[in-house]
Design goal:
Elements: E1 3-10, H1 16-25, E2 31-34, E3 38-44, H2 49-61, E4 74-81, H3 85-90, E5 96-98, E6 101-105, E7 117-121, H4 133-145, E8 151-155, H5 161-168, E9 173-178, H6 183-193, E10 200-204, E11 215-221, H7 224-237, E12 238-250, H8 254-263, E13 267-274, E14 277-283
Parallel strand pairs: 6-7, 8-9, 8-11, 9-10, 11-12
Antiparallel strand pairs: 1-3, 1-4, 2-3, 5-6, 12-14, 13-14
Helix pairs in contact: 4-5, 7-8
Bound molecules: S-adenosylmethionine.
Length: 287
């Protein structure tokens, strides 16, 4: 039976996304977070695996040179007999309620109660099942900000979860962008699964690729750096009184991000927090 290495990486919350990318580059087809500081992925055991793990360890430690504090920068491995990654991942995705959104894997029969909106997803290797606090914070903020018929721009759409939830909650249109071309087919399939494919356009790129303006809500669940970089373009693209929701932000970086949003001309209104993670809601006031 084929063997796999389960690779367990422990870093600070601010370094989780970057360490996940390094884990991918080491050969993992995806990763999941367990708590705010631990991520887990699988790479095939055998030829070259030890060298790849050693290189991963060095690159995680070197995140410090990129300005990120990797904290313990610990990389451990456990040999496991073949277990399909998708099945391992599915074990962590259960129906979850976030406000009035009921998130469910496509392979479960979750029943919404009256007033709830069902969103069915198969995130595959894309981020965004609702299992992570950052996604849940964005879903809550989105429900607070979205008005019927509103228009939503989702930057870093991953599985498409936020754009799809917006459409299911009554947005008239959403534009979803991601700079990873591999997630877009997954996001499109999820939109079709929920019957909202016509309401959402998915494009590859960053916020700089968006020329259409007048958005009522712009949500960016990425990481502190890209959120701060997105603030000025977001301000230009927002409708008057539109809301910017920035997330993927460890609580320890909240002050820095709030200051940067203010600097970009957005009025910071509130911060939502779950465990180590925050989402910041800021508004465009009249020019
Ligand atoms: C943390 S996931 C969020 C997924 C989903 N929106 C959610 O809330 O669960 C971040 C996504 O942003 C994408 N991404 C990272 N940097 C980006 C950038 N600068 N512009 C656009 N997308 C980016 C990644 O490929 C990934 O799919």
């Amino acid at each position: 039976m084929a063997e796999w290495l389960q690779v367990i990486v422990r870093v600070t919350p601010e370094a989780v996304e970057a360490a996940g990318e390094l884990l991918r580059q080491a050969g993992a087809s995806g990763w999941e977070s367990r708590g705010a500081e631990t991520l887990v992925g699988y790479i095939p055991a055998g030829s070259g695996a030890d060298a790849r793990v050693a290189a991963l360890q060095a690159r995680v430690r070197a995140l410090k040179e990129a300005g990120l504090d990797p904290g313990p920068a610990e990389v451990r491995t456990v040999v496991v007999t073949e277990q399909p990654w998708a099945e391992v991942w599915k074990a962590y995705f259960r129906p979850t309620r976030v406000g009035r959104v009921l998130l469910s894997p496509t392979w479960e029969q979750a029943r919404p109660t009256p007033g709830e909106v069902l969103v069915r997803l198969d995130p595959g290797m894309a981020f965004g099942s609702g299992a992570h606090a950052t996604t849940r914070l964005c879903l809550l903020a989105l429900q607070e900000e979205l008005r019927p018929g509103g228009r939503v721009l989702d930057v870093g759409t991953g599985s498409g979860i936020l754009a799809i939830a917006a459409a299911c909650l009554g947005a008239s249109r959403a534009l979803a962008v991601d700079n990873d071309p591999e997630v877009l087919p997954i996001a499109r399939a999820n939109a079709a699964q929920n019957g909202v494919a016509d309401a959402i356009t998915f494009i590859e790129g960053e916020i700089a690729a968006v020329t259409e303006g007048g958005w009522d809500v712009i949500v960016a669940n990425i990481a502190p750096g890209p959120v701060m970089q997105a603030a000025a373009p977001a301000r230009r693209l927002l409708a008057s009184s539109g809301a910017f929701i920035g997330a993927g932000i460890p609580a320890a970086r909240a002050d820095e991000v709030r200051a940067s949003l203010t600097e970009s001309g957005l009025g910071v209104e509130r911060t939502l927090q779950e465990a180590e993670w925050v989402a910041i809601v800021a508004r465009k006031h009249r020019d």
